[in-house]
Amino acid sequence: MKLSGKVAIVTGGSRGIGFATARILSENGATVVLTAKNQERLEKASSEIPNSLGIAADIKNKNDVKNVVSKTVAKFGQIDILVNNAGIFPKIKELHMIDEDEWNEILDVNLTGQFRFTKEAIPYLQKTSGSIINISSDAGLKAYQGFNADAYSATKAALILLTKCWALEYAKDKIRVNCICPGVVDTDMTKPFLKTQKDKEFMDNEHPIGRIGQPEEVGKAVLYFASDDASWTTGAILAVDGGESIK
Protein backbone atom coordinates (compact mmCIF):
# COMPACT_ATOMS: atom_id res chain seq x y z
CA MET A 1 0.00 0.00 0.00
CA LYS A 2 2.45 2.61 -1.24
CA LEU A 3 -0.06 5.46 -1.09
CA SER A 4 -1.86 4.78 2.17
CA GLY A 5 -3.37 8.00 3.53
CA LYS A 6 -2.77 9.95 0.30
CA VAL A 7 -5.42 11.88 -1.62
CA ALA A 8 -5.14 12.07 -5.41
CA ILE A 9 -6.94 13.98 -8.14
CA VAL A 10 -6.93 12.36 -11.59
CA THR A 11 -8.20 14.47 -14.48
CA GLY A 12 -9.79 12.67 -17.40
CA GLY A 13 -10.42 9.86 -14.94
CA SER A 14 -13.56 8.30 -16.39
CA ARG A 15 -11.86 6.13 -19.01
CA GLY A 16 -8.61 5.12 -20.68
CA ILE A 17 -5.32 5.97 -19.02
CA GLY A 18 -7.02 8.12 -16.39
CA PHE A 19 -9.35 5.35 -15.26
CA ALA A 20 -6.57 2.75 -15.15
CA THR A 21 -4.38 5.15 -13.21
CA ALA A 22 -7.10 5.95 -10.70
CA ARG A 23 -7.74 2.27 -10.10
CA ILE A 24 -4.04 1.54 -9.53
CA LEU A 25 -3.68 4.48 -7.13
CA SER A 26 -6.74 3.26 -5.23
CA GLU A 27 -5.42 -0.30 -5.08
CA ASN A 28 -2.30 1.12 -3.47
CA GLY A 29 -4.18 2.88 -0.69
CA ALA A 30 -4.99 6.32 -2.09
CA THR A 31 -8.32 8.06 -1.91
CA VAL A 32 -8.94 9.14 -5.50
CA VAL A 33 -11.03 11.98 -6.87
CA LEU A 34 -11.89 11.41 -10.52
CA THR A 35 -12.87 14.32 -12.67
CA ALA A 36 -14.19 14.42 -16.22
CA LYS A 37 -16.83 16.25 -18.21
CA ASN A 38 -19.32 13.40 -18.72
CA GLN A 39 -21.28 12.93 -15.48
CA GLU A 40 -22.78 9.54 -16.38
CA ARG A 41 -19.47 8.02 -17.42
CA LEU A 42 -17.80 9.51 -14.36
CA GLU A 43 -20.32 7.97 -11.96
CA LYS A 44 -19.88 4.57 -13.59
CA ALA A 45 -16.08 4.82 -13.32
CA SER A 46 -16.22 5.88 -9.68
CA SER A 47 -18.55 2.99 -8.84
CA GLU A 48 -15.90 0.58 -10.11
CA ILE A 49 -13.02 2.03 -8.07
CA PRO A 50 -12.92 1.67 -4.27
CA ASN A 51 -12.28 4.79 -2.20
CA SER A 52 -13.06 7.12 -5.09
CA LEU A 53 -15.29 10.09 -5.73
CA GLY A 54 -16.34 11.51 -9.08
CA ILE A 55 -16.71 15.27 -9.48
CA ALA A 56 -17.81 16.42 -12.92
CA ALA A 57 -15.96 19.40 -14.39
CA ASP A 58 -15.19 21.05 -17.69
CA ILE A 59 -11.43 21.57 -17.65
CA LYS A 60 -11.97 24.69 -19.79
CA ASN A 61 -13.98 26.32 -17.00
CA LYS A 62 -11.84 27.73 -14.19
CA ASN A 63 -14.78 27.75 -11.77
CA ASP A 64 -15.37 24.03 -12.41
CA VAL A 65 -11.71 23.39 -11.73
CA LYS A 66 -11.81 25.41 -8.51
CA ASN A 67 -14.89 23.45 -7.47
CA VAL A 68 -13.12 20.10 -7.88
CA VAL A 69 -10.16 21.23 -5.78
CA SER A 70 -12.27 22.89 -3.06
CA LYS A 71 -14.62 19.90 -2.76
CA THR A 72 -11.66 17.54 -2.54
CA VAL A 73 -10.11 19.51 0.30
CA ALA A 74 -13.46 19.99 2.05
CA LYS A 75 -14.18 16.26 2.04
CA PHE A 76 -10.70 14.77 2.50
CA GLY A 77 -8.69 17.60 4.06
CA GLN A 78 -5.70 17.51 1.72
CA ILE A 79 -4.27 16.91 -1.75
CA ASP A 80 -1.11 14.83 -2.13
CA ILE A 81 -1.14 13.85 -5.81
CA LEU A 82 -2.32 15.56 -8.99
CA VAL A 83 -2.37 13.58 -12.23
CA ASN A 84 -2.82 15.92 -15.19
CA ASN A 85 -4.15 13.35 -17.64
CA ALA A 86 -7.13 14.97 -19.38
CA GLY A 87 -6.74 15.57 -23.09
CA ILE A 88 -8.44 15.49 -26.45
CA PHE A 89 -7.22 14.59 -29.91
CA PRO A 90 -8.02 16.63 -33.04
CA LYS A 91 -9.04 15.48 -36.47
CA ILE A 92 -5.93 14.73 -38.55
CA LYS A 93 -5.30 17.72 -40.80
CA GLU A 94 -2.36 19.55 -42.30
CA LEU A 95 -1.67 22.91 -40.68
CA HIS A 96 -3.20 25.06 -43.43
CA MET A 97 -6.48 23.14 -43.11
CA ILE A 98 -6.89 23.64 -39.34
CA ASP A 99 -9.58 26.08 -38.26
CA GLU A 100 -8.44 28.53 -35.57
CA ASP A 101 -11.28 27.44 -33.27
CA GLU A 102 -10.10 23.84 -33.54
CA TRP A 103 -6.56 24.92 -32.71
CA ASN A 104 -7.68 26.92 -29.68
CA GLU A 105 -9.87 24.08 -28.41
CA ILE A 106 -6.93 21.68 -28.26
CA LEU A 107 -4.71 24.24 -26.52
CA ASP A 108 -7.45 25.09 -24.02
CA VAL A 109 -8.04 21.48 -22.97
CA ASN A 110 -4.57 19.95 -23.30
CA LEU A 111 -2.44 22.80 -22.02
CA THR A 112 -4.36 25.61 -20.35
CA GLY A 113 -6.51 22.99 -18.62
CA GLN A 114 -3.39 21.49 -17.05
CA PHE A 115 -2.37 24.99 -15.96
CA ARG A 116 -5.78 25.53 -14.33
CA PHE A 117 -5.68 22.36 -12.26
CA THR A 118 -2.05 22.80 -11.27
CA LYS A 119 -2.60 26.44 -10.27
CA GLU A 120 -5.51 25.51 -8.00
CA ALA A 121 -3.82 22.46 -6.47
CA ILE A 122 -0.41 24.03 -5.74
CA PRO A 123 -1.36 25.72 -2.42
CA TYR A 124 -2.50 22.35 -1.05
CA LEU A 125 0.40 20.39 -2.54
CA GLN A 126 2.74 22.86 -0.82
CA LYS A 127 1.28 21.75 2.52
CA THR A 128 1.83 18.04 1.81
CA SER A 129 5.04 18.21 -0.26
CA GLY A 130 2.97 16.52 -2.92
CA SER A 131 3.54 15.10 -6.38
CA ILE A 132 2.37 16.20 -9.82
CA ILE A 133 2.42 13.78 -12.74
CA ASN A 134 1.79 15.21 -16.21
CA ILE A 135 0.68 12.87 -18.98
CA SER A 136 2.24 14.09 -22.22
CA SER A 137 2.93 11.95 -25.30
CA ASP A 138 5.64 10.70 -27.61
CA ALA A 139 4.26 13.35 -29.95
CA GLY A 140 5.72 15.92 -27.57
CA LEU A 141 9.18 14.38 -27.82
CA LYS A 142 9.59 14.27 -31.59
CA ALA A 143 7.80 14.90 -34.88
CA TYR A 144 6.25 11.98 -36.74
CA GLN A 145 5.90 12.10 -40.50
CA GLY A 146 2.25 11.97 -41.54
CA PHE A 147 0.98 12.46 -37.98
CA ASN A 148 -0.50 15.89 -38.77
CA ALA A 149 -1.91 16.76 -35.35
CA ASP A 150 0.05 19.94 -34.85
CA ALA A 151 -1.95 21.50 -32.02
CA TYR A 152 -1.85 18.22 -30.09
CA SER A 153 1.91 17.87 -30.59
CA ALA A 154 2.45 21.50 -29.54
CA THR A 155 0.50 21.04 -26.29
CA LYS A 156 2.32 17.84 -25.42
CA ALA A 157 5.74 19.40 -26.07
CA ALA A 158 4.78 22.40 -23.95
CA LEU A 159 3.71 20.12 -21.09
CA ILE A 160 7.13 18.48 -21.11
CA LEU A 161 8.88 21.82 -20.68
CA LEU A 162 6.34 22.99 -18.10
CA THR A 163 7.12 19.84 -16.12
CA LYS A 164 10.73 20.98 -15.86
CA CYS A 165 9.73 24.58 -15.08
CA TRP A 166 7.36 23.52 -12.31
CA ALA A 167 9.87 21.02 -10.91
CA LEU A 168 12.39 23.83 -10.43
CA GLU A 169 9.81 26.37 -9.33
CA TYR A 170 8.39 24.23 -6.53
CA ALA A 171 11.42 22.20 -5.48
CA LYS A 172 11.69 24.56 -2.51
CA ASP A 173 8.33 23.18 -1.34
CA LYS A 174 9.49 19.59 -1.92
CA ILE A 175 6.80 19.19 -4.59
CA ARG A 176 7.97 16.69 -7.20
CA VAL A 177 6.82 17.22 -10.78
CA ASN A 178 7.37 14.49 -13.37
CA CYS A 179 6.07 13.62 -16.81
CA ILE A 180 5.12 10.45 -18.69
CA CYS A 181 5.13 10.25 -22.49
CA PRO A 182 3.09 7.27 -23.69
CA GLY A 183 3.22 5.89 -27.18
CA VAL A 184 0.02 4.56 -28.73
CA VAL A 185 -2.14 3.07 -25.97
CA ASP A 186 -5.29 0.98 -26.42
CA THR A 187 -7.95 3.53 -25.40
CA ASP A 188 -11.09 5.13 -26.81
CA MET A 189 -8.90 7.94 -28.19
CA THR A 190 -6.90 5.56 -30.38
CA LYS A 191 -9.72 3.20 -31.43
CA PRO A 192 -10.59 5.22 -34.57
CA PHE A 193 -7.05 4.49 -35.83
CA LEU A 194 -7.25 0.76 -35.07
CA LYS A 195 -10.40 -0.26 -36.90
CA THR A 196 -8.96 -3.04 -39.06
CA GLN A 197 -6.51 -5.84 -38.45
CA LYS A 198 -4.16 -4.15 -40.89
CA ASP A 199 -4.33 -0.93 -38.85
CA LYS A 200 -3.55 -2.84 -35.67
CA GLU A 201 -0.63 -4.69 -37.20
CA PHE A 202 0.83 -1.46 -38.58
CA MET A 203 0.56 0.27 -35.20
CA ASP A 204 2.02 -2.72 -33.34
CA ASN A 205 4.97 -2.73 -35.72
CA GLU A 206 5.57 0.99 -35.15
CA HIS A 207 6.65 0.07 -31.61
CA PRO A 208 9.97 -1.83 -31.45
CA ILE A 209 8.67 -3.99 -28.59
CA GLY A 210 6.08 -5.27 -31.08
CA ARG A 211 2.76 -4.00 -29.72
CA ILE A 212 0.86 -0.95 -28.56
CA GLY A 213 0.51 -0.26 -24.85
CA GLN A 214 -2.23 -0.88 -22.30
CA PRO A 215 -3.58 1.85 -20.00
CA GLU A 216 -2.42 -0.04 -16.90
CA GLU A 217 1.19 0.13 -18.09
CA VAL A 218 1.03 3.92 -17.97
CA GLY A 219 -0.83 3.79 -14.66
CA LYS A 220 1.98 1.79 -13.07
CA ALA A 221 4.46 4.46 -14.13
CA VAL A 222 2.24 7.08 -12.50
CA LEU A 223 2.27 4.98 -9.31
CA TYR A 224 6.06 5.04 -9.29
CA PHE A 225 6.22 8.83 -9.58
CA ALA A 226 3.44 9.32 -7.02
CA SER A 227 5.04 7.06 -4.41
CA ASP A 228 8.08 7.42 -2.17
CA ASP A 229 9.92 5.11 -4.58
CA ALA A 230 10.50 8.30 -6.59
CA SER A 231 11.30 10.51 -3.60
CA TRP A 232 14.51 11.80 -5.25
CA THR A 233 13.04 12.15 -8.73
CA THR A 234 11.70 15.42 -10.09
CA GLY A 235 11.69 17.00 -13.54
CA ALA A 236 11.96 13.55 -15.14
CA ILE A 237 10.48 12.79 -18.56
CA LEU A 238 9.70 9.08 -18.91
CA ALA A 239 8.79 7.53 -22.26
CA VAL A 240 6.46 4.57 -21.75
CA ASP A 241 6.13 3.64 -25.38
CA GLY A 242 7.59 0.27 -26.33
CA GLY A 243 10.61 2.06 -27.77
CA GLU A 244 8.69 4.10 -30.34
CA SER A 245 10.38 7.42 -29.57
CA ILE A 246 13.94 6.10 -29.92
CA LYS A 247 13.61 4.80 -33.47
Automatic annotation (TrEMBL):
CDD domains: SDR_c. It comes from the Archaea. Belongs to the short-chain dehydrogenases/reductases (SDR) family. NCBIfam families: PRK07231.1. This is 3-oxoacyl-[acyl-carrier-protein] reductase FabG. It comes from Nitrosopumilus zosterae. The lineage of its organism: Archaea, Nitrososphaerota, Nitrososphaeria, Nitrosopumilales, Nitrosopumilaceae.
